[in-house]
Amino acid sequence: MHSPPTNKRIVISGIGVLCSLGTSPEQVFQSMLANTSGIRPVTHFPTDTLQCHIAGEVDWGTDTLEAFGDLSYDKCAQFAITAAQQALQHSGLSVLQQGTSITGIRAERFGLALGTCNGGILSLEAQWTVTELDTKLTGKYPFYQQSDDVASYLGVRGPVTTINTACAASGNAIGYAYDMIRWGYADAMLAGGSDPLSHTVYAGFNVLRALNPLPSSPFGTNLGLNLGEGAAFVVMETLESALQRGATIYGEVCGYGLSNDAHHETAPHPEGRGIQRAVDMALRQSGVPKDQIEYINAHGTGTKANDQAEIAGLRSVFGAEMSVPISSSKAYFGHNLGAAAAIELVTALYAIHRGYVPGTLRLDALREGCEGARIIGEKMEPRRPQYVLNNNSAFGGHNASLVLRTSPSAEDELESSLEKQHVHHRVAIVGIGAVSNWMTPGNGVLAEMTARRRSESEPFSLKELHPDHYERRMNTLCQSSIGATRLAYEDAGWSEQDLSSGQIGYIYGTARGSTSSIAKFLGSIFEKGAEFASSIYFPHTVINSISGKTAEKLGLTGFSSSLSTGGSDGLTAALYAAGTIRGGLQQRCLIGAGDDHSELSDAIDRAQALHELPYTRTEGSVCLALSELDNAQLSGQRIYAELLGFGTAFGRGQADSPIPSAIALAIEQALAEASLSPNQLDLILLNCPGRANDYILIKQWLSEIYPLNAPLLIDLNIQFGYGPSFSSMLQLAAAAELVSNCSPHTILEQWPELAGRQLRYVLTISATINGSYTAAIVGSVDGQ
Predict the structure, then answer these.
(1) How confident is the model over 639-666, as a mean pLDDT?
(2) For strand 188-195 and strand 230-238, is the pairing parallel, antiparallel, or unpaired?
(3) Ketosynthase family 3 (KS3) domain: from which residue to which, for each copy (predicted)?
(4) Euclidean distance between CA atoms 435 and 448, whole angstroms
(5) Choice among 199, 269, 299, 597 that is catalytic
(6) Are the beta carbons of 163 and 561 closer than 8 angstroms?
(7) Among 66, 440, 570, 754, which residue's beta carbon has the most beta carbons within 10 A?
(8) pTM for the full predicted model
């Protein structure tokens, strides 16, 4: 199997930022050095009926706005493009569509990871209704649309993913980008986050009584947070390439950690256990001893619950005395939600580059639970720490922690952690669970193919099957995700004690989250007013709430992420999880994906021309249990299949284009990683929205590779219906069943060409709505 070295050193060679303190790193730094606050009266929308009237707003000049002309981008994407362009210019690196250059990276080797909390929500707010929606505006809303628009604008054609873990999203995005380069899927990545200030989100925080009517003071006695807006991006590449072209290096990403509190959808674990686990993982992966951390840029929102929990979690790692200097940059520019981690990291790295670390404005006395901690006060301190920690936490219980070295050189060496050694574990699929309105839980995927009768089916009810996991008014996507995840871990033979050990990860892919809950929250404001925002549905406007609630109900506290691609969500979750198992970061991981069906999802379909496609729309969730293969065999587990290789690329090609199509690039990557030739494939499962161009491209690729005797190409969406996230994972589950010899005889009635054939290698391909492709190859395991 193709396996690039996992000990590549990844550095940040370009930075870009816009926030309430300015629209460049230098401008923001000078404002911070002058102890300037960007928190001012809100001008974007009326706040007269709310308890708070201040926030950090970006002062965006008309020249910047005019630069986008008539391009149909939400402000979230516009912010992101501006910051990403800055980072590229800062780095001196360019995206090459053709040719080679020491100062450029080929587009297909340049990827993008964007973190966002609310996606294009301003495009829905502009309509102030959730009925009879305008197609042009609604098409700009989806979370995945933001990263796809940025990638299209910049010409990026490598891995493109939206990380949706709310306020930890851009920290997770930087970690994800770090992995994409180390694992060989990209040579360079743009990573960061973007979130504009939203009227409805502001109203949601208002109803939770989390806002501070005065400029906030994290860790101080003035409780509450201020919201902000902005974007920040970094250019990431290998240390070798950065040194080769003489780039300025702002920091080396040494490692990162993710976790979930599994405690509450909006409140952190009071003892900071999730934060502790994320920091411990980051330190372990990086190989940096904890006593070498010289500065911590904390999440520090200013709320009572968050600040106390964060300090408690940090004490668990660094000791009760907590002598490591800490500051919260949110006092300068507010809580920038999904962009928070990236903005805080970029501004801290630039400040350190100039010889300072950020302070914590307006810090008077330390509040209860924070006493004794070494919190940096009002002024920036002259200091150049070598190793720093960047922390962020989120609704849904997600935590992200990054460890960075601020002045790396080629001679520096750390004692390698397990993750950085030349380990390459094999990855097995050991459990499958699927839930939808047409599946009988526990029957397997393919067994339902001819047995199902959609008209006779009833919606899945978690309340009936597992009432202990059910909550009043729990949305259908949460119910199906919890149900599918439980089926998968039970199928794998894992116990509830295994789940609560903190050693099992959970990565979830969803294109849209619970659109029914999002519509109910927005409707509460659009119909009644901002002061009547629903506190019940507000937590579900962040679409990581599905994975967060599943983690909470099942006690999943390990490596935890949630992502959106708009059609390959399941395979992307599988790629991410498999990489962490191969590298030794974790031995077991659950991967899920799901969709719901609502009037809002129908409106999004119409906006993105999906309403005329040939498939029935479906909803539900699929979950797979992954394990390190040797351990699974030693424990006597049934193994469905081995995950052999992945590939991913962005950019819908044309049948007559000289540039290789994204689908061809993704398949070639997967074959190379699996060390297989095209002729060794027995079957191809194609999952796409159903547009004619998708079929033209795949058939063109097949005709070029296989002049004669191409593998059978099957489209399971004809039988199962289509859900952007659900279908991606469902077809991976089907591929695993097909090579495991457990597929039912009924499939032969559908495809008699398979009769009497032993399927050893199956390729599954998922296409996204905007032209990104992810490919995965599964293989049978001898003796199973």
Answers:
(1) 80
(2) antiparallel
(3) 7-406
(4) 11
(5) 299
(6) yes
(7) 570
(8) 0.95
